[in-house]
Amino acid sequence: MTNTAKTKSNMILIVVASLFTVLYISLIFNQNIWTDEAFTIELTRKNSLFGIIHKTAVDVHPPLYYIIVKIFISLFGSSFQIYKMVSILPMTLTMALSVTHIRPWFGMKRALLFLVFLNAIPCVMEYGVQIRMYSWCIFFITLMGLSAYGALTRDTFVHWHTLTLSSICACYTHNFAMISAMIIYVLLGITLAVRKRAFPVRWFISGTVSGICFIPWLPTLLRQTGSRIGNYWIPPVTIDTIAGYFDDLFGSRLPYTAVMFAILFLIAIFLCKHSRREEYFVAVLILVPVFTALAGILISVMLTPFFIARYLIPCMGITALFLAVRLGGMLHSRATIVLLGIFLTVMIGNSYYTNYLSEYRSTHTDEFLRYMDENRTPDDIILYNNQEYGFIYECYFGSDKLRFMDNMDFSSQFDRIWYLDSCVSPWLSDVTLEKHGLVKKYIATLGIEQNDFILYKICKKP
Amino acid sequence: MKKIYIISAALTTAAIIAFLCAAPHLIRTTILSENNVSYEQPVPSIAGGRILSQQFVPQYEMIKNIEIYINALSCSRAQGYLHISISGPDTGIAYENQLALSELPEYGMTSIADDITVIPGSTYTLSLEAVDTADDGPAISFYPTMIAANTEEQGRKLTYGGLPLADSVLRASFRYSVPLAPINYLAYCFFIAFVILFCAERLKK
Fold first, then answer.
1. Of A341, A360, A379, which residue sits at a domain end?
2. ipTM, two decimals
3. Can you give the pTM of this predicted structure?
């Protein structure tokens, strides 16, 4: 390939990756957050870097993602959009791998297909804009998979170094990304041993360095796991839940999307051959999500339910790589390229539209916040009775004027109370209001996230 | 090679025609219409002829199911059944079903009617009665109209034992099965065409 052709190919990939990044950015101009996102916001707004490490040690996830978020919000402010941009950044970095790794190693067609497959997988766009660690996991695991391929085929210091670094980052971002990273190491070790018929020393050093770097967090991980046995929120793993994993990741609002992806996987596995010998390692990489799921199921069955489908999202980058490399190598006629291209474009459109509806149309949040902006004064109190959502409300209104029902003193000084009644206990009786000379007026039925409530205005009786 | 394309084109055309014929029946999506959040009240018994009836106006042609909130915690479920009927605009019975109380959950949203074809925009009446029960039977929940009525129940009557329950609607959700917009079929058609052509090319090699 000439330099001009390389530059042209890279430019095309950069333009496509930029367009996808714009699509992601277009999904963040809303005020929608859900419980886990509120957790991220609360943790990073209220704590220093040290505090974050301490608090994540008490929770179930490792601290790297929260540290990254903390650095970004310290530099750029803590609006919801900055938080969401922190999740989009690794998606762009993952797409950049098509320029830095995939095109040089597998060619332009497969690099472009990688971009398209990555964004056509329905769950990727959903989690690519959430204030959670999944998009960072996708980046670290994809980089690790590609570095493993580089280490296998080129055996350079840079690839071993990147492999080690990306595995350490994956381990410190999500526990199941750690399991995926371990599986990549095992698959690489077996491949090297079989291929070279000797003990893979560099692989051993890389794995040992990764292991040693994770040792400081290991006691915390074991303690976290131990403390959750028998009392974790994830439901038990059954045959139905296992059968549902694939649909959770590849299903969308368009019926049978998961079936179409399943057919593509079958074609990629059984009807495609690698065009070069070393490419079989890319085929081997598809075992990473499979073994991660098996490990998750095994842990869930033997210890306590710890695994859900979204813990496979870190593997979606290498899944897209697998599909792109296997199918891309076999697309020889223009007709098949065009047909697959159109199909995947429709799937991206479908994925985008699904996420657009979810981000902009699925809740009453914007409507509620707009009403509060127009009507609430600084001395007004916001009262709520659904305790679980307290820390979500706090992300929107701060804690100064926010009161949970049990802690409300109706005899204190206030102009008005905005009461978010989720119709759960504890409820506010009319007798209590009467006693304090107050009266409530129904405003509307609204909500934040999936928590709908009746909004009442409570004021002094005229 | 040319032969491959001709065979693939013929197979694709046949497969797409078959798909387009079957698609409106096979590939459908669901739309859920439910009440807003509110405090509910129970009708303590629908046994002994105290029929609970809710008028509703369906939005789409095919109702996949209707769910209501049942509380059977304090009643015997050993015998008896729930009689459900839906009468149409021409006063004829459009749907009838019997659910044994023993099959009901202790409490919660419960599907009471499945796969009903209706005329959108017409007024129907859903009637519920507990028959042959050992006691008062299960309680059924209702909501205040102003806060919680769903589109189907808005402005329609809820009656209990023949008397109207003012400003109230049955706590109910309507799940419809609707065909996809035809534009969505494009995805399936391109997929079918790709799979057939790709497989044909691979098998040829």
1. A360
2. 0.85
3. 0.91
Note whether A380 and A401 are within 8 A (CB): yes
* Phi/psi at A168 (5° precision): -65, -45
Residues of B in contact with A442 (CB under 8 A): 146-147
Distance CA A241, CA A332 (A): 39
> What mean pLDDT value characterizes chain A?
92
Distance in angstroms (rounded) separating the CA atoms of residues A182 and A315: 12
| CA torsion, ordered A118, A122, A128, A132, to nearest 10 deg | -130
Chain B hits for A423, Cβ within 8 Å:
37-39
Q: What is the pLDDT of residues A175-233, one digit of tens each?
A: 999 999 999 999 999 999 998 878 899 999 999 999 999 999 999 988 888 887 777 78
Cα angle at B13 between B7 and B16, to 5 degrees? 135
Domains of chain B: 2-27+181-204 (no CATH), 29-179 (2.60.120.820)
Tell me the CA distances in angstroms from A450 to A32, A272, A432, A455, B36, one per residue in order: 10, 44, 29, 15, 12
Give me the domain span that covers residue A415. 365-460
- pLDDT 10s digits, B97-151: 999 999 999 999 999 999 999 999 999 999 999 999 999 999 999 999 999 999 9
Main-chain dihedrals φ then ψ at residue B67, nearest 5 degrees: -115, 140
Same domain flag for A279 and A382: no
Q: What burial letters (b/e) apply to A421-434, b meaning 16+ CB within 10 Å? A: bbbbeeebeeeebe
Nearest Cα residue to A316 out of A362, A285, A354, A348: A285
Q: Which of A305, A336, A360 is the last residue of a domain?
A: A360
* Interface contact flag, A340 B198, Cβ < 8 Å: yes
Put simply, whether A290 touches B (Cβ < 8 Å) is: no
DSSP A415-445: S-EEEEE-S-SS---HHHHHHTTEEEEEEEE
Tell me the C-alpha distance between B128 and B52, whole Å: 5
Asked whether the predicted pLDDT for residue B91 surpasses 70, the reply is no
